[in-house]
Amino acid sequence: MKKHHTVKDLPDTERPYEKCFERGTGYLSDAELLAVILRTGTNGIQSVELAEEFLRYQGGGLLNLYSMSKEEMMSLPGIGRVKSIQLKCIAELCKRLSRLSAKEQVTLQNASSVAAYYMEQMCHETKEILMVSLFSNKGRLITEQIVSIGSISTSVVSPREIFYTAITHNAAYIILLHNHPSGEPDPSPADFRVTDTLAKCGEYMQIPLADHIIIGDHCYYSFRENGQI
């Protein structure tokens, strides 16, 4: 039996490229979409089969684009250094596209819009990332800065650094964000202490802490919405 090693070698009725051209990307399965990116298989494995094996890894499906390291990807037959980098770049593009579509809706008064803007960027991280977002006096997002990576506590959060950044960018308000890799956004005692410290500093600096938002697995917790700021 003839072995098909590339998408091009497949019968016309099975080629993802042909199906995409005739029907559109919406008609491609997850494996077929990945096969278009992977392009070639290896050792008798078709590119679609390789994509299916990638999706089956630890039952992660498309989320493997985020959760798998390049080294884990390269452990699969047919995925080398170049393909692993391509797949991670696809994941990063997805994050950035998600943020671009949400940016126009980001407002200081709406915690859900802020959470939506950072959700894809933060909810797949395996470490806690603390970020501060800076807003103008009209409630427009100016920029953001990562403050720390790792466990969140008052010992690693520097109010001086946060408010120096806010002053440098002429921010009128700040919002603190961080993720919980567990997927559960409920605040810890350390989260309450950090929030209290920065809220007090914001009062003194006249740059209020408008909210502290914890990102979980496509869910969030807002200190402001819960009446704690």
Task: Explain what you see.
There is one protein chain. With 229 residues, the protein is of the alpha+beta class. The chain has 2 domains: 92 residues; 119 residues, 3-Layer(aba) Sandwich (Cytidine Deaminase, domain 2). The chain contains 9 helices and 5 strands; from the N terminus they run H-H-H-H-H-H-H-E-E-H-E-H-E-E. Strands 2-1-3-4-5 form a 5-stranded mixed beta sheet, sandwiched between helices. Strand 1 and strand 2 form a beta hairpin. Helix 2 packs across helix 3 and helix 6 packs antiparallel against helix 7. The longest helix has 23 residues. The relative contact order is 0.09.
What are the key terms here?
alpha+beta; disordered N terminus; Cytidine Deaminase, domain 2
For the largest beta sheet, what order do the strands appear in spatially? 2-1-3-4-5
Tell me the series of helices and strands, N- to C-terminal.
Answer: HHHHHHHEEHEHEE
User: How many independent structural domains?
Assistant: 2
User: Spans with pLDDT under 50 lasting ≥5 residues?
Assistant: 1-5
Looking at the structure, what is the overall shape?
A: elongated
Tell me what the CATH architecture of the largest domain is. Answer: 3-Layer(aba) Sandwich
Q: What do we call the CATH topology of the largest domain?
A: Cytidine Deaminase, domain 2
**Quaternary:** single chain
User: What's the average pLDDT?
Assistant: 83
Beta percentage is: 5-15%
Overall SS class: alpha+beta
Biggest sheet, in brief?
5 strands, mixed
Number of strands: 5
Our measurement of the CA-to-CA distance between the termini, rounded to an integer number of angstroms, reads 68 Å
CATH class of the largest domain: Alpha Beta
CATH fourth-tier homologous superfamily of the largest domain = Cytidine Deaminase, domain 2
Using only CA atoms, what is the Rg? 22 Å
